[in-house]
């Protein structure tokens, strides 16, 4: 990856994944747009290496690169990553330079040994797809929806063909499959659901709180919707669409794809950014309350809080939501206009800083005056302060 800076490798990403692990945000995969020729302004995609993980420590506020080993997954974008204990699982996605394009491969990375293993579960496998959503519940990994080739599967779910591929030997389309990986039994399961099952979709977002998962938005053919569906994971019952603009005093978010939905408390989730029905990249922020009846309210942010972005990732470390990278223009415009990714890590606070963080800030800001007192601090605090001061980025 010659000619690519360290900042590029950390921040110029879309179609990547991120998970919160202890006090760190782990970022992996995805691609960035590169300029082929400055004179003719032609862009191409460069996929990031998958043998490395970028780790952002929320205490030291420093990035570091960690190398992995084992069954390294192929370079990929639009996959789904889920954290279970000390294991990171990745499923599906679009494989770079692959004859098949999308995949249904399942990998596990042990975060203690940093070793990858490709898994071959028993049972009927999901169809290949990317841009799906996922969540973890009771030692099982759930994957819903996505876009990819029309594959054979004995389980019942809908596939809506992409119109331009209907006459192709390899048609593609959107699906609403709900496949479950049972970690303990190492097998695929296909739960039977009740209620009004959401239509096929891709590039949607899902977030779980207790025994309920909420799915918002996504694309089907030319429509990017603003539907909100809830699945009770104990009864496997879908709620039907919960979005009703006519009954909302504060309005509801517009339809979108490539957004994030993240719970910041058991009854509140944050919806941020995405790509609108009119191909506009968004930087709006909404609070979804699920205490009793579901309600929406737009969260007002400073007008200059950050660039619009889609195909980003978000992780919550109380009281801050960290939003990482993403495209600042729609994919097709990015390739034509060479619009770059969002370079800055966006930090959205939803409560005042803790006393601990305030003290750290003051100590680092007054380093020259206080450095003689550092030896009196506990060793772990000395390490955090040293990391901050030696890595100002």
Strand content: 35-45%
- What's the average pLDDT? 90
Structural class: mainly beta
The low-confidence parts are: none
Principal-axis shape equals globular
Fraction of residues in helix: 10-25%
The biggest sheet amounts to: 5 strands, mixed
Query: Order of strands across the widest beta sheet?
Result: 7-13-12-10-9
Number of helices: 5
The separation of the N and C termini measures 22 Å
Count of strand segments: 33
Radius of gyration: 21 Å
Please describe what this structure looks like.
By secondary structure, the chain is mainly beta. Helices cover 10% and strands 41% of the residues. The protein has 5 helices and 33 strands. It has helices at residues 6-11, 331-337, 355-365, 367-370, 379-390, and strands at 17-21, 24-28, 31-37, 42-47, 52-57, 62-67, 69-70, 76-77, 80-84, 87-91, 94-95, 106-110, 115-119, 133-137, 140-149, 159-161, 172-182, 187-189, 194-196, 205-209, 212-216, 219-220, 223-224, 228-232, 237-239, 256-257, 260-265, 268-276, 281-289, 295-298, 313-317, 320-324, 346-349. It has a 5-stranded mixed beta sheet, with no helix packed on it. A hairpin with a 2-residue loop joins β14 (133-137) and β15 (140-149). The protein is globular. The chain starts with 5 loop residues before the first helix and ends with a helix. The mean pLDDT is 90.
């Amino acid at each position: 990856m010659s000619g690519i800076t360290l900042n590029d490798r950390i921040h110029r990403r879309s179609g990547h994944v991120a998970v919160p692990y202890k006090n760190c945000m782990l970022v992996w995969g995805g691609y960035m747009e590169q300029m082929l020729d400055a004179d003719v302004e032609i862009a191409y995609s460069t996929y990031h290496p998958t043998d490395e993980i970028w780790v952002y420590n929320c205490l030291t506020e420093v990035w570091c690169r960690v190398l992995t080993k084992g069954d390294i997954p192929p370079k990929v974008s639009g996959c789904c990553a889920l954290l279970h204990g000390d294991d990171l699982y990745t499923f599906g996605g679009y494989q770079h330079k692959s004859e098949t394009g999308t995949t249904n491969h399942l990998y596990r990375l042990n975060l203690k040994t940093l070793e990858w293993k490709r898994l071959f579960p028993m049972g009927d496998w999901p169809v290949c797809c990317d841009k799906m959503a996922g969540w973890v519940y009771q030692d099982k990994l759930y994957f819903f929806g996505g876009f990819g080739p029309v594959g054979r599967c004995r389980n019942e779910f809908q596939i809506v063909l992409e119109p331009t591929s209907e006459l192709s030997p390899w048609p593609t389309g959107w699906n609403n499959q709900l496949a479950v990986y049972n970690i303990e039994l190492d097998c695929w399961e296909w739960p039977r659901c009740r209620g009004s099952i959401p239509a096929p979709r891709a590039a949607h977002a899902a977030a779980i709180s207790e025994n309920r998962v909420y799915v918002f938005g996504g694309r089907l053919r030319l429509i990017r919707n603003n539907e909100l569906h809830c699945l009770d994971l104990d009864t496997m019952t879908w709620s039907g669409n919960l979005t009703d603009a006519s009954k909302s005093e504060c309005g509801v978010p517009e339809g979108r794809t490539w957004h994030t939905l993240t719970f910041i408390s058991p009854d509140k989730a944050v919806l941020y950014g995405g790509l609108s029905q009119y191909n506009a990249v968004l930087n709006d922020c909404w609070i979804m309350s699920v205490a009793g009846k579901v309600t929406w309210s737009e969260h007002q942010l400073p007008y200059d809080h950050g660039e619009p972005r889609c195909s980003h990732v978000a992780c919550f470390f109380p009281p801050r939501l960290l939003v990482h990278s993403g495209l600042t223009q729609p994919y097709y415009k990015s390739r034509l206009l060479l619009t770059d990714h969002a370079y800055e890590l966006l930090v959205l606070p939803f409560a005042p800083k803790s006393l601990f963080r305030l003290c750290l800030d003051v100590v680092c800001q007054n380093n020259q005056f206080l450095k003689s007192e550092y030896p009196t601090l506990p060793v772990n605090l000395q390490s955090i302060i040293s990391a901050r001061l030696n890595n100002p980025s």
